[in-house]
Every structure is written in structure tokens, then in C-alpha cells.
Protein 1
Amino acid sequence: MFANIVVPIDGSSPSDAAVALAVKVASAPDASITIAHVIDPAKLAAVAAPSSIDPNIAIDAARQAGTEVLARAQEAAKAGNHKVTTTLIEGDPVSAVLELATNIGADLIIVGSHGRGGLSRALLGSVAEGILRKSSIPVLVTHAPRAEPTQR
């Protein structure tokens, strides 16, 4: 079954769902889960360039936020009693996740998807879709659980 799982996260509810699913799917007694957060310094610098924000400040803030997101996800994943490691990676998110998965010999990637479509997906891109299209490793895509309708 699945003993070495990579879970890229961004701090969103779909990525939280991916971590929870990884804990359930990791079936081997010695299974390991690697939770990764990717920051793209080139994209951050490009966004900061037109403003008066120093790109280094934006990159440092993204690193700090990424570290916090990873710590929360690692805590949530400990419920499964599996080996859980985290890594903060810099680069293009799709390429970085696929390189990590290949380098550690992952047998599954679990990624959360926001489920955007149409113009918003075209403008924002989809890391989940990029991983799905380019990966030679099996990929499981999940969404955040839908809220239960409230009864009146």
C-alpha cells in the first residue's frame, strides 16, 4: 500500500483536508508523510516590484508564514502515529513538489484543490492540476469537506 506520501499544503482548508486524508491513507506501519509548503520567490518579487515593498521583506514574510503553516499541519498529522516531516521549499510549486516526491521515493502525492474553474483557474492557475498532469507518481486530489446545511 502507501508508505511514503507527500502532501503539498498552502494553509487552506483543502490542504488541511489533504493532510487528514494522508493520515487515513498511510497504511504501512512504518509509513511516512512529508508535508511540504512551497514559496515562489520569483513570483513574490514580481508582485512586490511595482509597489514600494522590498521583495526581500515579502519573501521573508512568506517563509515565516510557511513555517507556521507547516507547524500546524505537522501537529494535525501526528494523530495518525506515522513519521511526519515537514519541508519548506522555494521555487515553482509544481516542479518543486514533483522533485521532492521523486527524490524521497514517494509512492503517493495527496493534494488539496480549491475546485476553481473557468476564468479564476485560468488566471490563478492550479497547482493541483499541474501536479496531476505532470506526475509519474499516483496523485490523489481532495477538496475541503462541504459545510452541512443549517436547519431552520
Note: The longest strand covers residues 32-39.
Protein 2
Amino acid sequence: MNGNEDMKRGGILLLISAPSGGGKTTVCAAMLGRNPRMRRVITCTTRLPRPGEVQGVDYHFLERAEFGRRVEAGEFLEHADVYGNRYGTLRSSVLEVLRGGSDVLLNIDVQGAASIRKAAAGDVELGAALVTVFLTPSTLGELERRLRGRGTDADEVVARRLAAAAGEVEEARHFDYVVVSGTREEDQARVQAVYEAEQVRRHRVRFDFGGGQ
């Protein structure tokens, strides 16, 4: 789409999920680098900032009590506990980006994706924007090969991730698109094709010919 056409469509909330080791982080990085209209949302966490991390740039760093208050108030589209810390995506942060004329890219696990689908089902604006993609290797054997190829996880960690992946793949039926993973370049091209196709979905396109009768 050219620049003029781009201004005439509604925003896209592109959610990408995959089993651990499925390649979604690499694909997301490529999508952000390739598409200037696409933005990541700054998420919240209760963990302490690491050296070099900046409040409001890398994360919104919250005290646990503040995070809990926001959970109770229903401000998060999704949230999770990870290794003793809490992480979450604020509804207001997503809507701020969409209303500012940009698209949102979310890299979310399957549980978070389910929470966001549920929220979008009850919200006209989010429902119109949401597009979900599940990226998965063709077999658990291929996923195991990738996990072991990283050389970063002990055998018991690999086994735990594979066991979780078996259940995560079952959730693929709830996504709009399923991309069976190949090479990095193939995965990026397929997700890019989904994104470009969604830009011209009928409900997103806004016609304004001007001077009409």
C-alpha cells in the first residue's frame, strides 16, 4: 500500500504466538524492522530494571501492589507470572498506539492470546483490529531439534518445554492463521503476507473520494 492508502485504513493489532522455541521472537523483530507503521507496546513488569533499562522505554516498572491494583481494575488485556515476577499488557497502551495511527505487534504466549481474544470479543475497537497468528514447527521432533540446537537449556528444561508445546499446539485452532515454520526467511515472508493481506480487509478500508454528491 502507498502512503495515501495507508492513512485510509483502520489499525491492526497483530498477535503472534508459538510454542517456546517456535521462532516468534525472530519473526517479530523482523516485522518491526520491515514495517515502519508497526509498533511494539511497552508492557508492565514488577521486576527491577536491569542495567541500561529505562522506565517507560523498555518497560513500565511497577510495584507489586500497583500491578495488583491494575489487575483488579481490569486494566490489563493479559498478564502472567514468570519466575516470580509479573508481566502484563495494558489495554490503554494498545489503544493509544492504534488511535495514534500505528499498528501494534504483540509477541504473546497462548494463554495470553486467549485472554486477548476474550477481551477483543467484548470490545468493538479491539475486535476490529485483532489478527492472530500461530507459528509452529511441523513436528515436535523439529521443535526439539531447534531447542537443543540453541544449546542454552538443560535436558529437563527441553523436556518441560516439549511437554508444554504439545498442549500449546492444540490451541492453534483458535487462531486466525497458522503458519507452519520453515526457514527464518520463509516464516518472515508468510507472516508479512498475512499482515499485508489484512491491510486491505474490507472492514478496515475507509473510502473517501471527496467532492461526492
Note: The chain has one domain: 8-199.
Protein 3
Amino acid sequence: MEFTKEQFFIVTGASSGLGEATALELIKQGASVVAIARREDKLKELKSKCANPDNLYIEVKDLSQDIDSLPDYVKTLREKYGKFRGMAYCAGINFIGSIRSINYQDTLDLFNIDYFAPLFMAKGILDRRNNIGKGFSLVCISSSDGINPVKGQSIYTGAKSALILTMKSISKEVSSYGARVNCVSPSMIKTPMTVGENCVLEDDNKEKYPFGWGEAQDVSNMICYLLSDKAKYISGQNYIIDSGGEV
């Protein structure tokens, strides 16, 4: 196994999609996971899917609320579980609409969960009192839309591109004590969020997605690699996972 039960990781957005897949894979590889999401019922379902349920710890939290206090929230988690080996920020929402249809509240709601929450969770977890120091790894989920924007996603693209560059800058700040920060940017992945949207069918996107839509496991594999010591020489990067067709 890559990890041990003494190594604790935070996974946000852990109740479904990429967060769920990442939490399950980390536990499968032997780690302990503090799973954060808004819905307790979904987190309990996640526990029932774990290879080792005793290694999953549930925390019900809406990260889009009281964002300024998130560093203090991370401190309470450290006091409860000990210093963290890593964090995967997988929580996120999307917004599809033309420039004519957007409004300030839609923009604020999306940026709160897709940009400000990961930024302030990063502030908390990168406080040296809350992580193990050398060997710590933070991975944030961005999107290939943050590199190659498409129409109708101006707000989403803005948040995701900002996240990529912000984390790259932060990686330079924390490298002095051996912490690593990276982003992973998937294209179309089959998750409850994407399948529920009015997206173009997979069969009509052979050129854009030559291998078809990806599975959550395709992304969680990369996240877990970046969280591991196998990636100890990698920081400040953004890995695009798009089957070679989109970007």
C-alpha cells in the first residue's frame, strides 16, 4: 500500500464525483481520510463503500459559508485528527450561461465554492502548524476549461483559471519547507454534476474526447499520485486530463 492509516488526508466534496473517488482510492491504498461535504447522508453512503470504513472520518460542512473562517476550521480539524499529510480540494459547482444571462449573485456563488473556498482552505492547511511539513501535498481540482475556455462558461472558466495560477504562486511560497501544491484539470468526466447538465452527447464529441468521457477514477488516480511521495519532485504544476483531445 502507498499510504498508512497514520497518514491523514482531507478530501472536500467527498460525497460524490471526483471527491468520492479520491476518498475511496486513498482509503484503498491504506490512508485515513477526513471526508468533508454538505450532506451527512451521502457521507454515510460513502463510508459503506470504503474498503476500510474505520479509516474514514465524516465532517459535515458547507465550505461556501463563512469562508473567512475556513483557516480556523482547518485548525479545529488538526486539533481533532493531528497534522495532515495532504489535502485534495474536490468541491465545486458549474454555471452554464451566456454573458447576457449572468448576474452578480451567480458569479459570487460560483467563485465562493470554486475559488475562494479552496484559497482559504489552502491558507489553513498550509499553515505549518496544521501539516506535516516536508512531504505535505495539496491538490486542487481545476478544469481544462480554465486553459481552453468554451462559450457559455465565462464565470466557471474565470474561477478555474484563477485557481490554477493562484496555486502555482502559492507553491513557490511553501516550497521552502518542502510542501507541494498542484492542480489537476479534467475535461468531461462522468460525475453526477456533469451527467445532470444539458451537455452534448458523448457520441457527438469523438474529436473532442477521443477516448470518450472519462471516469472519476481516471482523475482520482492522478490526485492520489500527486498526494504520494512518488510525486515528491513535482510542485506548481497543472495536469490536464482530457484524453488528448480538448486542449
Note: The radius of gyration is 17 Å.
